[in-house]
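#struct-pred
JK: can someone run the complex with beta-D-fructofuranose? inputs below
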Amino acid sequence: MISQKLSEARVYEIKKEAEIEIENRPVFHLTPRVGWLNDPNGFSFYDGLYHLFYQYNPYRPFWGPMHWGHSTTSDMIKWEQLPCVLAPDEEYDKKGCFSGSAIEADGKHVLVYTGVTRIKLPDGSEQERQNQCIAFGDGLNYVKHENNPVVTGDMLPENCSRIDFRDPKIWKEDDTYYLIVGSKDLNNVGQVVLCSSKNLTDWQFETILAANSTGKIGTMWECPDFFGLEDKHVLICSPQSMKADKYEFHNGHNSVYFLGDYDKENHVFIKEEPHTLDYGMDFYAPQTTLLPDGRRVMIAWMKSWDACVVPDSQDWQGMMTLPRELEIKDGRIWQKPVKEIENYRANKCHYTDKKIDCYTTFDGIKGRTLDMTVELSGEEYHDFTVEMACDDEYSTAFTYNRVAGVLEIDRTCCGVTKDVVCVRKIKIADTDRKLKLRFIMDRQSIELFINDGQQVATTAICTPLQADGISFNCDGSAVVLSLIHISEPTRLGMISY
Ligand code: FRU
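RT: done, structure tokens with the ligand placed:
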């Protein structure tokens, strides 16, 4: 039996989705059926498919009562929309089913999420409480556990917040389940806590696994993730309200990672310095999963809390990034688009050794859904610019200042009608090699993979689709060693059930 709230949401999303023009939706990035989407949740492989849930308010294209939307895919490129699975319909989650994760256990698909509620304090005032809850399902329908919440703030040491305690990420090691949960202490110091359970329903607090020991890494740590990658352990989290440090951490609410060493027996994680995960303007709350073939893949919300280029009139809001494969090289995480995207390539167009010393366009190089790689060399120039989604009125520009080794993204003229951040500068990590820029554009987003994924920058735009030009410009003479452009991948569209 599903609750009335969930059933209403399911009826509503189907009806409203049918009214939305699909033309402005991305082709291979996940969007909500209707309304609002934020964090990816429950990214997992279950019963032969990848499942991705998401923070979802079906009723308005703005954040609101949090449900869990649901989608599946067999290749992380072509998505299918399924009925939403969780609604805020119990006393313990009446203020929202916040972010969480998923795991398979005894053939069941288990969702772990944060139930947000309000309690009455002795003085009669109300206060929020965030606790961890579970639901068991079959890949389509999920039943909340009768003894929810299964992890509460009361299990934590006294100086941990009971209000900010959310976003559980679950995994299993030998015969024990573990959860890390985002938290902060009563002095606003961000941290992640570790809990364990033998049976998924009885949990105990283990330790504070990591904390903002330098005080420089924001306040509350949202959406933690923790996993082994090659010979290291990685902690990812999204600290709120973090100050920028030179060219790093420019998003206010940032997503960072720490590499480190994990002593599994004693639950001690020795972490190194934090690093930026994505240098663009629209990236938050990433979550990873381990694929059956051993790849560790990360997906994130392609938006930031503070900057939104989407016009208020649009009936839906929020997209996921492309899933990205992670690896460690030279002490850093490198990211590349999942290899499955290569199966959709069409209309290949290839130029080599082209000298660019003024405004230049190339036959066949245009469009709004494409995978384009530009490899640059030469030292006789200062600035080299690629403009995308452009015509006389619109443009999003990527300018490489070779002398400073800085790449600037400028979306001021992408069509945005709000005063949001539009320029971002990225210090290129390796200027000794030829600069390689791989742009993946899907109508209203551009993900830029720099130097084979050593750095990545994700940017949302809001440009009418007819602005499909791509141009190159240089104030001296640069050589485009190779320009490979693959446009209009086979029309994918999203399928709904
Ligand atoms: C991160 C976040 C999470 C929370 C969710 C609510 O973007 O604030 O911490 O669970 O969004 O929608």
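RT: quick notes.
Residues 38-39, 55, 66, 98-99, 114, 166-167, 222-223, 284-285 surround beta-D-fructofuranose (CB under 6 Å).
The mean pLDDT is 94.
JK: thanks, will look after standup
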